[in-house]
Amino acid sequence: MTLATLSDARSELHRIFGFSEFRGRQEDVVERVLAGQSTLAVMPTGAGKSLTYQLPAAMLPGTCVVISPLIALMHDQLRSARANGIRAATLTSADADWRETLDAFRCGNLDLLYVAPERASQPGFRDLLSTASLSLFAIDEAHCVSEWGHDFRPDYRRLRGLMDDFPDVPRLALTATADRQTRADILAQLAIPEDGLVLAGFDRPNIRYAIRPRDNPVQQLARLMAEEAGPGIVYAPTRRKVEELADKLGAATGRPVLPYHAGLDAEVRAANQHAFVASEDMVIVATVAFGMGIDKPDVRFVAHVGVPKSIEGYYQETGRAGRDGDPARAVMYWGAGDFARARMRLEEVEEARRQSERERLDALAALVETPGCRRALLLRHFGESPPNACGNCDNCLDPPQVSDATELARKLLSAAYRTGQSFGIGHLQKVLTGSMDERVIQRGHDRLSVFGIVAAEEAALLRPVARALQARGDLIANEHGGLQLAGNARAILKGEMPLAVVMPPRRRSKRGGAGGG
Ligand code: ADP
Ligand code: ZN
Questions:
Q1: Which pTM value belongs to this model?
Q2: Residue 360: in which H helix or E strand, if any?
């Protein structure tokens, strides 16, 4: 066997893939793999992770076993590998050609063998692997191995036992999203040396980030669509919302808009996805089920109606915009209720995971609430040291006004407390501003000490303050929408903790700065 070198790799890169150069840190990963060194590659979506195992797989003798979590993803990879003349196969329940695959594998005629972690962790698979020669284990979506990761899957934990039985086969773990803790965990779980980490830049400079409170999502999205004529993805939290938004946006804008969620028939889903990939102006409204493995470089915007699950999720989803490098937008429209619901769901999370889930939510709240550069916060979250301002996010382009809202927050918390912690912001606002509303009088809330203590000119700040308190978890909504004190509410009430709120800039006509609403 002759040793494959990096210069071989460059010519093979050209011969097999038709690319003249490696991109980013692909070369570092390929070099390590060819040298038989186990590696963790953390590279953003679209950076070209697949090539870092496909190229060595095509060059090295033996088969590269690829662990991949989704059948659809495997089949996409299979198609593109085969299109490049790489000998690849999948072993999934959807495949009818198992016999051919197994024969090819045993005879050393396969470069790539894709399997799901559930199959890889079965004892029979180990026996199968020992009948052939292996070049590499590639573990895609490797953050699934870590409980710190945002998508922990127990079957990934069993891969270690399998791979340990083949100690001479190097491992290449790949992921787009792993913060510091998750990275350390992946290295430990998969026994990859610490110096095997290859971390590529997370910055997507062509994406302009904006995060806005949600008032009228249809109107806000229609405005965004009027500014961005190219293809777009709108993420909505539920199937019902997806359907509703798709209908209303289509009607409001006259542009082609299709829904996508797991409740649709498989054929409809496939047809809608296909139509979107082929279109130059379509908007797809989808749940997070949409997007993994979709190669559409010209997506001009990704919008979130509601908050994503985590910063990792946000980065991954927004990362589907502008893969062609041309300017693209990522706009999130959030509401206090999004955080209220997420914090309520925390109570159902098993004890062991609750704290890390809470930290995930706090990090997301910090991103939403920051008056500073969004990109800087994102990149710091992934362990980079970016400059403090990027010049291409809403807060850099249009610095928001920050108000000291400590006194107002105390008044609001006090009103929530004195009305029995069972009213929403609408009612509290009426009490605080001294409205002679029927319900206020009926409840006797006009006789409370907090009645009318907020001046009219301050009233507009009440909602942003409530939103900020809810995002932080200092106010939480019960199932009837009643606001209850939680978190640091008592410290704020006692005047021991200041609170600053970001005032969203007034809607303006200037393109970009207001982020479509
Ligand atoms: P990831 O898995 O990191 O999200 P992919 O492996 O799907 O990314 O690659 C994204 C796109 O980049 C693909 O269309 C791929 O063909 C392209 N690509 C990968 N490597 C290179 C390269 N060295 N030069 C040009 N294009 C590349
Ligand atoms: Zn910025």
A1: 0.70
A2: helix 351-369
Place of tokens 């799901």: 116
**Smallest Cα–Cα separation from 89: which of 99, 130, 142?**
99
Distance CA 265, CA 372 (A): 43
The tens-digit pLDDT sequence of the chain (517 residues) is: 456 788 899 999 999 999 888 887 899 999 999 999 999 999 987 778 999 999 999 999 999 999 999 898 899 999 999 999 999 999 998 889 999 999 999 999 999 999 999 999 998 999 999 999 999 999 999 999 998 877 889 999 999 999 999 999 999 999 988 888 899 999 999 999 999 999 988 899 999 999 999 999 999 999 999 999 999 999 999 999 999 999 999 999 999 999 999 999 999 999 999 999 999 999 999 998 888 767 798 999 999 999 998 898 899 899 999 988 899 999 999 998 899 889 888 888 888 888 888 888 999 999 999 999 999 999 988 777 889 999 999 999 999 989 899 999 999 999 999 999 999 999 999 999 999 999 999 999 999 999 999 998 899 899 999 989 988 889 988 878 899 999 999 999 999 999 999 876 655 434 444 443 4
Q: Give dist(CA 238, CA 213) in Å, integer.
A: 19
- Ligand 1 near 49 CB (within 6 A): yes
Nearest ligand 1 atom, CA 45: 4
Give the torsion sign (CA, 87, 92, 267, 249).
Answer: negative
Q: Which run of H or E residues covers position 218?
A: helix 217-227
Under the phi-then-psi rule, with left for phi > 0, alpha for psi from -120 to 50, and beta for the rest, what region is 372? beta
Could you tell me which residues come within 8 angstroms of residue 345 by beta carbon, excluding any fewer than 6 positions away? none
**Predicted complex ipTM:** 0.97
Burial of residue 165 (CB within 10 Å: 0-12, 13-18, 19+) is exposed
* Residues 485/416, Cβ–Cβ less than 8 Å: yes
23 close to ligand 1 (CB < 6 Angstrom): yes
* Closest ligand to residue 375's CA: 2
Q: How many residues are recorded in the chain? A: 517
Q: What is the largest CA-CA distance in the chain?
A: 89
Q: Which residue CA neighbors atom 5 of ligand 1 most closely? A: 48
And the tokens for 98? Answer: 């198992």
Query: Which amino acid appears at position 165 of this protein?
Result: D
Q: Whose CA is nearest to atom 20 of ligand 1?
A: 48
